[in-house]
Amino acid sequence: MRREELEHVLRSTGRIVKDWNVLIIGSQSVLGTIPESDLPLEATASMEVDVAFFDDPDDQKADQVDAFIGEFSPFHETYGYYAQGVSVSTAVLPDGWRDRLVLVESENTQPGRGYALDPHDCVVSKLVAGREKDTKFADALIRAGLVRPDVVAERIELLVDVHPLVMKRLRDWITAYLPEPDGC
Predict the structure, then answer these.
(1) Which of 97, 81, 91 lies closest to 44, judged by CA?
(2) Per-residue pLDDT at 160
(3) Which residues are in the DUF6036 domain (predicted)?
(4) Which residue, of 73, 96, 130, 155, is most buried by count of CB atoms within 10 Å of its CB?
(5) 3-class SS of residue 95
(6) How far apart are CA 31 and CA 91, in angstroms?
(7) From CA 98, how far away is CA 43, in angstroms rounded?
(8) How far is Cα 13 from Cα 19, in angstroms, rounded to an integer?
(9) What is the reported pLDDT for 43?
(10) Cα-Cα-Cα-Cα dihedral sign, residues 53, 56, 58, 60
(11) Which strands make up the sheet holding 113-116, listed edge to edge?
(12) Consecutive 10-residue runs of the chain (184 residues): their mean pLDDT?
């Protein structure tokens, strides 16, 4: 996916649901926070933008997105990419994530605007999900120097209500990227 395609999804989403504040909650949120030319292929491979709304308690807005510009819709068939409406609670995110959102707004997003996850928060969310594609995504961003392993480690510790075995898996995974502690 490219930045201009993300902007098209934001513009279309805003028009469909008449809610101009769209949360970009999945991997493609990095298109709103990191220059597209810097992103590794693994970070832009998805053709799906997960979008949520801050005020959508019954997921009606998310359902509208799926119906009009979701997978297998005429929008998807025409453009080759699509949006998936999800709930804000879909992703497990570190405490304080809302304070770190990045505004994605341009002429191309109007009348909508997006709020992208901070890249470190996005990586933590993907690591919690734990699918192979998610760990490849996280690995690619770290190897490209676009997210810092020490910040990811800090954000892992900000997770709340995550099963201890999942926390162990996350800590073990990020440890491979952290420098060895100096011996005494």
Answers:
(1) 81
(2) 96
(3) 19-137
(4) 155
(5) coil
(6) 18
(7) 22
(8) 8
(9) 94
(10) negative
(11) 82-85, 48-53, 21-24, 113-116, 102-104
(12) 96 92 95 96 94 94 97 97 95 97 94 95 96 96 97 98 97 92 60
Extended strands (E) in 17-172 = 21-24, 48-53, 82-85, 102-104, 113-116
The residue behind tokens 């993907």 is 126
What b-and-e string marks burial along 30-68, b requiring 16 or more CB atoms within 10 Å of the CB?
Answer: bbbbbeeeebbebbbebebbbbbbeebeebebbebbbeb
Please identify which residue in the block is written with the tokens 């395609």: 5
Q: How far apart are CA 50 and CA 90, in angstroms?
A: 10
- Greatest Cα pair distance in the chain: 63
Q: How far apart are CA 30 and CA 144, in angstroms?
A: 13
pLDDT for 152 equals 98
pLDDT at 133: 94
Element (H, E) at 17: helix 3-17
Q: Collapse the DSSP code of 19 into the 3-class scheme (helix H, G, I; strand E, B; otherwise coil) and give the result.
A: coil
